[in-house]
Amino acid sequence: MQNCPTDAELKFCCAAVYQSEWVRLLLGESFHPGGLALTRRIGELLDLRPSDRVLDVASGLGTSAIFLAQEFGCTVAGVDYGPDSVAQANEAARAAGVANRVQFEQGDAERLPFPDGSFD
Q1: Is residue 18 part of a domain?
Q2: Closest alpha carbon to 77 in 96, 100, 46, 45
Q3: Residue 26 is part of a domain; what is its CATH number?
Q4: In this structure, is residue 102 part of a structural domain?
Q5: What gap in Å lies between CA 68 and CA 50, rounded to an integer?
């Protein structure tokens, strides 16, 4: 019988893959289908406003979260399992001048580090 990896091992493995440079080279800056064009459309459909708080789960390098803050002025909290991705995303937010509205932290999507009702 094969040993199955634990949930934590699977999450670590997936996070490690997405933190690798070759994934960025293959997928570009936005890792989700539709890229930033879809992110913009979602923001428009949600009618995002500067007073809104948005949660970006599995935020990766922060591309979508930073884009939402720049385009709609909203505040965004990003959560990603990979600590390297979180560090890079926070640096990208600083470089983009939106660190006052976009923060990233390491966390598990199954146990979010925010109280219920924290986001719009």
Answers
A1: yes
A2: 100
A3: 3.40.50.150
A4: yes
A5: 10
Residues 7 and 99: their CA atoms lie apart, in Å, by 32
C-alpha 23/C-alpha 6 separation (Å) is 24
- Residue 1 covered by a domain: no
**Cβ neighbour number for residue 74 with a 10 Å cutoff:** 21
Give the pLDDT band of residue 24 (cuts 50, 70, 90): low
> Of the candidates 61, 57, 114, 111, which has an alpha carbon nearest to the alpha carbon of residue 84?
61
Please tell me the predicted confidence (pLDDT) of residue 35. Answer: 84
Specify the pTM.
Answer: 0.80
Range of the domain at 81: 7-106
Contact 54/68 with Cβ under 8 angstroms?
A: yes
For residue range 48-99, what is the model confidence (pLDDT) as tens digits? 999 999 999 999 899 999 999 999 999 999 999 989 889 999 999 999 999 9
97: which DSSP letter? T
